[in-house]
Each structure stands twice: as structure tokens, then as C-alpha cells.
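Me: Here is a favour to ask of a fellow structure person. Could you put it straight underneath, so I can go through it closely?

Assistant:
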Amino acid sequence: MKAKVFIDGSAGTTGLQIFERFEGRDDIEILTISEEKRKDSAERARLINESDITFLCLPDAAAIEAAALCTNPDTRIIDASTAHRTAAGWDYGFPELSETHRERIRSSRRVANPGCYASGFISLVYPLVKAGVLPEDYPLSAHAVSGYSGGGKKMIEAMEGENKTKEMFSPRQYALAQAHKHLPEMQAVCGLKYKPMFNPIVDDYYSGMVVSVPLITRCLSKSYTPADIHEILSEHYAGEHFVKVMELQGAETLPDGFIAANTLAGTNDMQLFVCGNDDQILLMSRLDNLGKGASGAAVQNMNIMLGVPETKGLE
């Protein structure tokens, strides 16, 4: 029997990407809503409760409202918004973090899809906290560059429109008040005492991102080398299909000494890099903000919940 799937917010960037990843699948039936009823609460409630799985691709307030429309105990929800990522009763949708995460997703009725920047940060920091490398009060910082698609329809239209300003052709820093919406999950999922300092940058290309986390080894409880950190991350993600720890220092994977942010655009892959020296170690996570950072992760979570191969529709 085919699983009935509804995308609430199918006209948005993430919703459209999820829909595209369903192409050729014969194990799901997509429930559609007419354009004129796209904001009709009664019609949305009907489709949500008729579905086996509903994706919420909505602004936070609308996602909270949509979740409340669900009265069918058999309907399972995957929320792509920020609204429920640290909420009680919701499971965090990053299966590679641990088998516990994966099993909770498998049996969950409510899954919160991770944020794109948060996915990059957490992929690097979570294993090191669990291994005892990073104490909960370590003063973490993160720097990230992303394609403009992460800003949604409004930013895409501005970046691709005829009135594009000269500033839009350059990298632009934002969230300067240190209140980016991904910070709460970055702190909570990693078990940090304090929020990291976060410096996001949007640049003039469509999709893909690199999140960088520097470590100052003299501030750690004991001395660690890049090789030590590389081994810990490699063991943590051993056997994972989508998350790969690349060769230490990137000598083969980065032969020209540069790491481009758009290399994994269009995929659900994530690559982790460890570079630096015994005094300063640079960790980097490369992914597609629309893939493993959004729609790809959502489809992967759905696959786990349906008991089909995680890679289905994502290769």
C-alpha cells in the first residue's frame, strides 16, 4: 500500500524541492491542495489528517498552527521550520548523530527537521562533546557561508532580479546581533552550556554551504592533534552513507588548497574536513543547504519512518 503524503507549504523552496525528490517513486501517493485553498485551514486539516506523513514547509507560526490541526493519531509530521526543533515531544531529525537518534526517528510521530547551518555545526560539535573533547562550557564559534537560496523566495527573487544592487554581488554578513534562529538547536542538541558565537554569510551563488568551527587546543582539557580529532569523527560516522569524513588535511580532496561551498549542490551528501595544526584545528562541514540542510534531510527522515532504504529518492 502506498503511503499518503501531504506537503503543507508546497509552493515554498523546501516544499518544491521535496516534491522534486519524489519523482519516480512508486511507494507514495501525493495528496495535493488546490491553489485557491492553499491557505484554507479546513482543507489543510482534511489533507493533514488524511495523510500518513505530512511535511510542514511553512513559517514558524504557521507550522505551529498546522501541527495543531492534526487530530489523527496515525498521521506523522515532519516539520521543516524552526518551530519545533527544541520542543518537547518532537524528535530531532539527524539520524547520523547516533543510533538512538535514528531509532527515535523510525518510531516518531513528530520529527523536527534540522536547520541547514545547524546541521553543519552539530555534525562537527556533537561527536566531540560526546567523546569528551569539548567541555559543555567551551567558547565555541562558527563561521559559515551559504548560497542565497537559503533566504527563501524573497531573497531568490532579489538576487536574480533586474534590480540587484552591487552589494548583492559580494559576500554579506548578517544576524549580527547574535540571535540567529538556528542558535537554540545548535546549543540544545550539542548539550552546550552557552550558545556559540555565530557568523553567517550569504554569497552570490544559488546553493551549497560550508560551516567552519575553529578549535584552540590550549583551551581544551587535554592536548589533541588534528589526527586525534579526525579519528574521533571517522569512528563516529563510520558506515554512514550520506555523512563522510574526508581525508585528514584535505590533501587529496582539496588539491588546490580551496574548499568551495557549492560542490555538493543538488545532493544529500555531507563532507567533514579536519585541517590545521597541533595549536589550531579547523573543522569544516560542507553540504547543500537545500539538500542535507533541508529537503534531502526531510525525505531521508521520511524514508526511515516508512521503513524503506534511507537513500530512496536521494541518489
